[in-house]
Design a protein that fits this description.
With 348 residues, the chain is mainly beta. It contains four helices and 24 strands. The radius of gyration is 22 Å and the shape is globular. A five-stranded mixed beta sheet has the order 9-13-12-11-10, with no helix packed on it. A four-stranded antiparallel beta sheet has the order 5-6-7-8, with no helix packed on it. Helices cover 9% and strands 36% of the residues. Strand 20 and strand 21 form a beta hairpin.
């Protein structure tokens, strides 16, 4: 079964959306899939179609970030079972995936994909059927640090898991253990149980954003130290409570939250995008953000070879004003015949 699946990208400097992939045949099992990003590609795996669980994707597909073209990623080894709603994270050359559901069974399977070789390996040795493994779940999130994988939240058929304790996988031994977490020392509390939250990782810290327990929808943001398992609640809150949303963070600590649901049981998805800083940006980034926000024509600078109107800035004007070339290259668009000429103009 195949369907039309499109990928869009957002230019963080101009605030413009542009379609990356055209109508391409990709697996139809794209509900609750996993998506991770590498330097050159987006990788999608898992996922289901409607009715949920009737068909589940098992292949890994890769989308070229420059061309929008899709390809099958050749993988082998100990492949994960057919599941959807897994948690995933890429760290270096590995993609880690934990949990998920078949629609009937909730698992805590843990696997790693070595990207250079396309090799899957199973990470957990616990025997699920002997009760040695923590409860299976879907729509959880994971944090990965050397030697351990920490699972945060998630749900089974009738259970939403608390965050005062978390399953931790010792990657060296392949054994799961449930460990207590430490509450925020200022508010003397843990985050509420939740599923369908978003999470981003920066170093040893995992930030969780929003989510729901099935009754209440949350707008809070918490940070978990993946080594000490200590919680800290941030003063930051979402503009509105969200679940089934997603989040990403830039290397400079700018958090973006997109989409989601705002009402329990609603099918009306949000297309809103929120941005917040987790810490102060480097001076160059702060200057660029200020420049971009105060320059209304920054999204359409012309190459120096084009004769502009008296009010339209050119790439030469921006460069003459002291804007570094590497920042100007952020304005180049995909799928435009002028793209290569623009980038050339910005780089010369």
């Amino acid at each position: 079964m195949y369907t039309t699946f499109r990928v869009w990208r957002l230019n963080l400097s101009t605030g413009e959306w542009e379609q990356l992939s055209s109508s391409s045949s990709t697996p139809g099992e794209t509900v609750s899939h996993c998506l991770v990003s590498t330097k050159d590609e987006l990788l999608i795996f898992g996922g289901t179609s409607y009715p949920f669980g009737s068909s589940i994707g098992v292949d890994v597909r890769a989308c070229d970030k420059r061309t929008g073209e899709w390809r099958d990623l050749e993988c082998h080894g100990e492949t994960p079972p057919a599941l959807y709603g897994q948690a995933s994270r890429r760290v270096g050359d590995y993609v880690y995936t934990v949990g998920g559901t078949s629609g009937y069974h909730f698992s805590l399977h843990a696997h790693a994909l070595h990207l250079p070789t396309g090799t899957w390996s199973s990470l957990a040795t616990n025997d699920l059927f002997k009760g040695e493994e923590p409860s299976g779940r879907y729509r959880a999130e994971i944090g990965v640090v050397p030697g351990r994988i920490v699972v945060v939240g998630g749900a089974a058929a009738s259970t939403v898991y608390p965050l005062d304790e978390v399953p931790v996988l010792d990657v060296g031994t392949g054994k799961w253990a449930v460990k207590k977490t430490h509450p925020d020392p200022l508010v003397h509390a843990h985050p509420s149980p939740r599923r369908c939250h978003a999470a981003v990782q920066r170093g040893k810290d995992l930030y969780i954003i929003g989510g729901t327990d099935g009754t209440e929808i949350f707008d809070d943001v918490w940070k978990l130290d993946l080594h000490s398992l200590s919680w800290a609640r941030l003063a930051l809150v979402l503009p509105r409570p969200l679940y089934f949303h997603d989040a990403a963070v830039t290397p400079n600590g700018c958090l973006y939250v997109y989409g989601g649901l705002t009402t329990i049981g609603s099918r009306e998805r949000s297309s809103s995008l929120f941005r917040a800083r987790l810490d102060a940006p480097p001076l160059l980034e702060a200057a660029w953000e200020s420049f971009a926000s105060h320059c209304p024509t920054i999204s359409t600078p012309l190459p120096s070879s084009v004769t502009p109107s008296s009010t339209t800035p050119t790439a030469h004007d921006f460069l003459a004003a002291g804007v570094p070339r590497r920042l100007m290259q952020r304005l180049a668009k995909l799928h435009l015949k002028q793209t290569e000429k623009r980038v050339a103009a910005f780089s010369t």
